[in-house]
Amino acid sequence: MHYQQTMNSSQRKLSVLGFRFGMLGIILHVLSLFVASLGFNDFNGNGFSFFNFSLSELGQYGHSQLAVVFNGGLFFGSLSLVLFCLFSLQRCDRPLLYPCLLLLILAMLSLAITGLFPINVYHLHTLGIEYFFYFSLLSIGCYLGYLWQGARLAGNPPKHFAYQGCSVLSLLCIAVFGLFVFLAQVDSSLNHSGQAFYHGMMMIEPRPEFWWPAILEWLALLLFLGWSAALVWTQRPMRD
User: Where are its TM segments located (predicted)?
Assistant: First the structure.
C-alpha cells in the first residue's frame, strides 16, 4: 500500500499544504523567468540569451525592462518554497532529511535575497548568489545521503520524499553546483576582474557568443528548480 494511503488527517493536510506552496514557488520561478526573458533588451537592443547573459543582468534595474518581474519571482517563489520545507520538516522519515530541508530553507532565503537586492545593490546581491550555491550543494548532498542510507536498509527504503530517477538528477545537480563553486574559487580567468565569477557577473563588452560563467549559472539554477519540483511532486495528493 502506498504511504499516502495510510496517512492520517493531520499528515494529509501537511502534505497538501506543502505541495501547494511548493508548486506555487516553482511556478513563480519559471513564469517570472519566462516573462522577463521575453521582454529583455539590453542597452544595445539585444534580446536575452542563456548563453551570454547572467542571472544578475536579467534582474538589473535600468538594464532589463522586466527586471521587477524576474526579481519578484525569485523573492516570492523562494519564500513559497521555504513554506514547503517548513511543512515537510514535520513529515521527515529519515534523520538526514532534516539537514537537507533546513539547508534548502537557507538556500531559498539566499535566492530570495538575490531577488530582493538585485545587482544594483551589489554586495547583498552577490552574497545571496554565493550562499545560494553553497547551501544548495550541501542540501542536495544530504538528500543523496538520505536516499543511500535508505537503500542500505533492506526492506525499509525512504518513502516520503523519494521519486524515480531522483539519484540521477541529484548527482547532476551536485556535479554542476560543485563545478560552479570550484571554478569560482580557483579560475579567475573566467572573468575580467580576477575575482570569483559570481562577483563579476556583468560582462564587459564586446560580449562573447558563449560566456561560460553565465551558462553554468543558468544550468545550475534550472537543474535546481527541476530537483526542487521533483521533491515537491512527492507530496502531491493521491487519490484513494
Answer: 21-40, 66-89, 96-119, 131-149, 161-184, 210-233
Q: What is the pLDDT of residues 101-118, one digit of tens each?
A: 999 999 999 999 999 998
Element containing residue 226 per DSSP (H, E): helix 212-233
- Side chain identity, residue 58: L
Whether the predicted model's global pTM rises above the 0.85 cut: yes
Can you tell me the distance from the alpha carbon of 5 to that of 91, in angstroms, rounded to the nearest whole number? 15
DSSP 63-95: TSTTHHHHHHHHHHHHHHHHHHHHHHHTT--ST
* Residues present in the chain in total: 240
Identify whether the C-beta of residue 212 lies closer than 8 Å to the C-beta of residue 220.
Answer: no
The 10s digit of each residue's pLDDT in 163-204 is 767 888 999 999 999 998 888 777 555 554 545 555 556 666
CA 108-130-148 angle, 5° bins: 60
Amino acid letter, residue 135: F
